[in-house]
Specification:
Blueprint (H helix, E strand, L loop, with lengths): L1 H18 L5 H7 L3 H9 L5 H32 L1 H23 L6 H25 L7 H16 L6 H7 L2 H10 L2 H48 L10 H26 L1
């Protein structure tokens, strides 16, 4: 029973990582020593199926509980202090960049990888900036787009260090997603879960093979996209001449400290 409760608590913390930009759910799973078992279970679903289901049941329940509890606070602050919260998210992403930089280069980097990084950042920024006027701040919320959101969240499990929530902020889906968790909106949560499951079980082997063959190239590409998407979520329609700019700066610094601390935990317990 004690072990079951411990796994539930671990799952609750991991769940919060799935919806906080800059804080990777996969990184938290590594901190708690269950990341490799998660990936092994996903990649070899039929192997020790019953034992793995029983092991991950409290983790999954804990993750859902963590997401549900956190959604109330995130929804409140996004509704009332959107700019400050977005700067906190930017800080979270900035805080994890040093760790992500070391991660992408752990198998070496060459001039070609720097070119991939810069090209993906520039092309990604141009694409996202151009698409911003087309999306007008939010894509339509329907079954397909909720599945896309679930797939993005699942990528945070498959790709170490990737935090997909900043893409959801860009698409204007982040707050609706948080509100869906808060209100237990089945019409949103069902396709969200379906998209996540399809991504996890459909891409796990492909991503595993791609990481084995082109680790450095893939991760430098991902880092470039992370940089581009982070630039896009920086609030631009805000009066920075007001005193509330100090609150934005404090929120950004708090995000940097939190994400940097979490990245150090990951390195310690990986």
């Amino acid at each position: 029973m004690k072990d079951w409760v411990l796994r539930f608590v671990k799952g609750a913390f991991i769940g919060t990582g799935f919806i906080l930009p800059g804080v990777s759910g996969g990184a938290l799973a590594a901190v708690f020593g269950i990341y490799e078992r998660i990936i092994s279970f996903i990649a070899h679903i039929t192997h020790d199926f019953k034992a793995n289901v029983l092991f991950f049941l409290p983790v999954g329940l804990g993750a859902l509980t963590g997401i549900f509890i956190l959604s109330f606070g995130v929804s409140f602050f996004l509704t009332n202090y959107e700019t400050q919260v977005l700067w906190f998210f930017v800080g979270c992403i900035l805080g994890i960049l040093p760790s992500l930089w070391r991660e992408v280069g752990k198998k070496g980097r060459s001039t070609r990888h720097f070119v991939i990084l810069v090209a993906s950042a520039v092309v990604g920024f141009v694409f996202l900036y151009t698409g911003e006027s087309f999306l007008k701040g939010q894509i339509p919320l329907n079954f397909g787009t909720w599945m896309l959101a679930g797939a993005l969240i699942a990528l945070g499990v498959l790709v170490p260090g990737l935090s997909p929530s900043n893409f959801l902020v860009y698409f204007g889906m982040y707050q609706p997603m948080v509100d869906a968790f808060k209100t237990l909106d089945v019409l949103a949560l069902l396709p969200l879960a379906l998209g996540g499951a399809i991504c996890l079980f459909g891409l796990s082997k492909a991503i595993d093979a791609l990481l084995a063959r082109a680790y450095a190239g893939l991760f430098h590409f991902i880092l470039g996209i992370v940089v581009a998407s982070t630039l896009m979520i920086i609030p631009r329609d805000f009066n920075y001449a007001s005193w509330t700019t100090l609150i934005c700066a404090a929120a950004c610094i708090a995000g940097i400290i939190l994400a940097y601390w979490m990245s150090k935990l990951e390195e310690r317990y990986k």
